[in-house]
């Protein structure tokens, strides 16, 4: 029996882009590709990529078991929610059952985020934090996040690894960062953090910074993000045993940029369109912060979490399995005007 793969989040920015790239790479043979959907339109759309639609509720343990076990699925790519760990536990349990009856190795990939390895989550930021570090699991276990909602996301990463180890399921913690570029899928074409900077800038009619100094954050073009998902899959299908469990962290990033440079590029682009009153970036006043919060629909305390902070998480693991990003980190600055155009048109601005 060869592998049967399920991808989730296919109508989303990352999952849709992944599915759209599927046919562009030569993967080792596998049996079937399934995609989790929630509507008839999504079911039709995934068929265009030769994926068989499956419809079930991820929060229903019995429904997850039925879908995975009945379809003999052996690889699950989870791209739905970085925060909670409940559905992931159901998938891992069901995969273990498939392994027991089929004897084939089973794999679960959890999509987390670089934020869970940042200052907001209490990760070290005084040095590069490599995704290949021997004790990254212990580092995550010891993190005490200054932003309380990050605890659940840290726990989700740890729980995935622990459950996988306990049940003999190989797990991977895949970390996207600031992803940019037009989504290639049939659903959501825009990302998260660039969108937040633009929305906050529109709301305050000025791009403000909330950090002192020049903290940095890893960045990645959406195509490179998709190709890392696929390179990992290629290694799994080829039986190469890519690092998993406590050694299965993969940051999708070609390098980092300073938020200040990203803000400046976006501010220039918004100013060119007359959408902010000043093309320069300045430190947010309390009033500016309140305007940003209103534009984002967040409490003021979460604005910095959404579009600032320090993350020294650094990618090495992808290159070790043969992944080569096409876009250098500074490309996000050169592409900022296109990103603004894309986000404005997607938001109907
Ligand atoms: N984009 C980034 O820059 C970035 C960076 C770091 C981490 N991440 C994380 O990566 C994950 C995917 O991000 P994204 O940008 O692709 O998000 P997105 O565009 O909002 O897509 C989310 C996907 O998950 C699906 N989904 C949500 N709840 C579901 C449920 N209960 N059952 C089944 N499907 C459900 C959505 O389906 P519907 O279309 O039916 O709603 C959609 O396909 C998220 O956890 C995000 O936090 C993203």
Automatic annotation (TrEMBL):
The record's Gene Ontology cellular component field reads: cytoplasm
The source's domain of life comes to: Eukaryota
Database matches in InterPro entries: Epimerase_deHydtase, NAD(P)-bd_dom_sf, NAD(P)-dependent_oxidoreduct
Molecular function (GO) terms for this protein are: aldehyde dehydrogenase (NAD+) activity
In what residue span(s) does the NAD-dependent epimerase/dehydratase domain sit? 5-241
The membrane-spanning stretches of this chain are none
Question: Which PANTHER family does UniProt cross-reference here?
Answer: NAD(P)-BINDING DOMAIN-CONTAINING PROTEIN-RELATED, PROTEIN YEEZ
- Please state what the protein is called: NAD-dependent epimerase/dehydratase domain-containing protein
Per the UniProt entry, what species is this protein from, by scientific name? Capronia epimyces CBS 606.96
